[in-house]
């Protein structure tokens, strides 16, 4: 049984775009926002040398960040204008080494409560025009009032 999520406010896409524009680390990694729907986000990253670890695989931190931030953005489509989401916990299963020219992530909300949202992310690596699932994450986020700092 699939649950349909509804955004809170007509400008949810604009708010999610701001999540990407205002996140310095996400800009540094050059993560691209591809699609925004209520409870669903698709992102990608063109793999560069700066993303790789010593064995020439995409670093687990890059994969984890892609999964976490995409999940946060998916949750961000469902909150009010005066709210933010903040990751409480995440678990990443690294299924294969990050080998490829491009990473793609799909994150979707699987539970929405008043103060907690849970999302799942899947990260795929594109290599020689083939795509393989390399990581799966579960992300638990707190819904908070606007933070200033």
Search tags:
Thiol Ester Dehydrase, Chain A; six-stranded antiparallel sheet; 3 helices; 6 strands; 44% strand; fatty acyl-CoA hydrolase activity; PAAI_dom; hydrolase; Medium/long-chain acyl-CoA thioesterase YigI; EC 3.1.2.20
Written account of the structure:
It comes from Leptospira inadai serovar Lyme str. 10. This is Medium/long-chain acyl-CoA thioesterase YigI. It catalyses: a medium-chain fatty acyl-CoA + H2O = a medium-chain fatty acid + CoA + H(+); a fatty acyl-CoA + H2O = a fatty acid + CoA + H(+); a long-chain fatty acyl-CoA + H2O = a long-chain fatty acid + CoA + H(+). Keywords: Hydrolase. Residues 56-129 form the Thioesterase domain. This protein is α+β, with helices and mostly antiparallel strands. It has one domain (12-145): Thiol Ester Dehydrase, Chain A, CATH 3.10.129. Helix content is 22%, strand content 44%. It contains 3 helices and 6 strands. The protein has helices spanning 12-21, 24-29, 60-76, and strands at residues 31-37, 40-46, 83-94, 102-112, 116-127, 130-145. It has a 6-stranded antiparallel β-sheet with strand order 1-2-4-5-6-3. A hairpin with a 2-residue loop joins strand 1 (31-37) and strand 2. The protein is globular, with a radius of gyration of 15 Å. The chain starts with 11 loop residues before the first helix and ends with a strand. The model has no long low-confidence stretch (mean pLDDT 94).
């Amino acid at each position: 049984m699939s649950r349909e999520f509804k955004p809170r406010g007509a400008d949810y896409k604009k708010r999610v775009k701001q999540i990407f524009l205002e996140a310095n680390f996400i800009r540094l990694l050059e993560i691209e926002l591809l699609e925004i729907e209520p409870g669903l986000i698709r992102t990608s990253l063109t793999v560069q040398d700066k993303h790789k670890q010593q064995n020439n695989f995409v670093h687990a931190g890059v994969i984890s960040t892609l999964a976490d931030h995409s999940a946060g953005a998916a949750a961000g489509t469902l909150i009010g204008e005066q709210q933010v989401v903040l990751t409480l916990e995440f678990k990443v299963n690294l299924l294969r080494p990050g080998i490829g020219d491009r990473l793609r992530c799909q994150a979707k909300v699987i539970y929405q409560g008043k103060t907690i949202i849970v999302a799942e992310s899947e990260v795929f690596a594109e290599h020689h025009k083939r795509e393989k699932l390399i990581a799966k994450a579960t992300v638990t986020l707190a819904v908070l009032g606007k933070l200033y700092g």
